Amino acid sequence: MDSVTELLKRETCATDSDYNGEYMGARISAVFVILVTSTLGALIPVISTKTSVSFLKMPSWLFFGAKYFGTGVIVATAFIHLLQPANENLSNDCLSATFRVYPWAFGIALLSLFSLFFFELLAFNYINKKLESTNGVPHSHSHFGELGKKESDIEDEEEEHENSTPVVSASKGLYPDHFSHAAEHQDPENLDTPLQQMDKEQYYGQLVSTIVLEFGIVFHSVFVGLTLAVSGDEFKTLYVVIVFHQTFEGLGLGTRIAGTRWPKGKEYLPYLFIIAYGLTTPIAIAIGLGVRQSYAPNSQTALIVNGVFDSVSAGILIYTGIVELMAHEFLYSDQFKGPGSFKRMVAAYIVVVFGAGLMALLGRWA
């Protein structure tokens, strides 16, 4: 009897669109406005590191702020703009009981996070083996410190470096070596200084991280565009919020792309990433306008698809934001070592928190 009562109380998923027939001119303009703002947000950090024109170069302090602001934006996007809406969608009362007996959004995000970690383990293992076969000698270090290194190799290296100053003088073993290698993964803060030559391992590692970050953001951007196109009375507020949302996300992505040291012959890749990001939301808006009468964002299918994809994206951005961006840059970077490093670290932390707080605040409306 209780199950029957619950079934009668359960709402039926909406099968109609939220579109109210108003603001068509503004909806069309959103395609072009968001195309420009999101593309510029991602493009400006890259252009400022590539150009030889002085007035187009971003001052080092501004690039520093933009990079850590973007880190905060990415982390807040994962929790506020992806995981929370995904949980709402996948726990909607109109869905079957299966979706209400388990927190599917969090479970999918968790699976996404661990899948990404496993994928990165495989990727770097493959890269290390490829470099070993290319160079003809065992590769001395990996993105994950001493992972996979033979004990005899470690002992030989300890003997070789026993007279040198360790990175962490208070301890020996694998942990300091991990810090030693990870400290090599630097982003170009001084934009007036030519970038140092990087090895293939670092390039591949940064490339994998950039692709993963782009993948997570682009997934989310598709549904942002669709939602804006078919929204109802809330369109005006949503329009303004999404312009800022996509610009901030673009800034976060752009600083990461700018921080990747692209080898000769691959200089076009940053612009491909930027174009892909810049076009995603406008194309989704255009598609949404085309199906505005038939697309029902609160239908059972839309709720499940949107919830699953947002959950996957949340897992990706949580992993990328916390592990690849926050942990590696704050803990494993030489930029926060030496005189004045603590003040610099505190400044970076404040900027990260500000970026996260501002993006979280936007979650009040979108």
TrEMBL record:
Compartments where found: Membrane
Segments for region (Disordered): 136-168
Gene Ontology annotations for the cellular component aspect, listed alphabetically: plasma membrane
InterPro entries: ZIP, Zn/Fe_permease_fun/pln
Signal peptide start-end: none
Record membrane topology: Multi-pass membrane protein
Keyword field: Ion transport, Membrane, Transmembrane, Transmembrane helix, Transport
Pfam families: Zip
Protein name in UniProt: ZIP zinc/iron transport family
The species this protein was found in: Candida tenuis (strain ATCC 10573 / BCRC 21748 / CBS 615 / JCM 9827 / NBRC 10315 / NRRL Y-1498 / VKM Y-70)
Lineage: Eukaryota, Fungi, Dikarya, Ascomycota, Saccharomycotina
